[in-house]
Amino acid sequence: MFEHDQLTIHQRENEGIVILDLKGHLVIGSGDNALRETVESLFDGGNRKLVLNLAHVSNIDSSGAGVLFALAQQYGAAGGKLALVQLVHVHAELSEMARLEATIEFYEVELDAVNSFFPDRVIRHYDILDYVEHRNDPKT
Fold it and tell me: What CATH topology corresponds to 2-136?
C-alpha cells in the first residue's frame, strides 16, 4: 500500500491483472504525482495490463484527469491497456472525463474490466455519456 497526503493506493491482482484501488483525492500535487510514480514503477517493471478502481476517489481535477490520459496513452503505445472501473458522479462531472473515454475504457464493475483483457470473454462497456444523461434526467 502506498499512502500520500491526498491519495492512498492499494495494489492487488485479479487473474494476473494488476488492480490499483485508489482512495482520496486525485488532484494536482501529491495525489497525481503518487499515481504517476506508482504506475510508472509498474510499467517499468513490465506491467502492460492495469485497472484503476476509482470507487473511493472523492475528487479528480484536471491535473488528475491529465495523468489518467497520459498513463493510458503510455500503456496503449506499448501495446498494453489501462482501464478504469467504478466511475462515480463526482468524476463524471469533469468535462475531461468525456474526452478520456476516447482513450480509456470505463467499466461499471471490476469483473468486466478484468474480462476486457481476455478477448474471448463477454464484457459490458460503461458509457459515460449515458451515465451523465441519465443523471441529468429529471425523471430518474
Answer: Transcription Regulator spoIIAA (3.30.750)
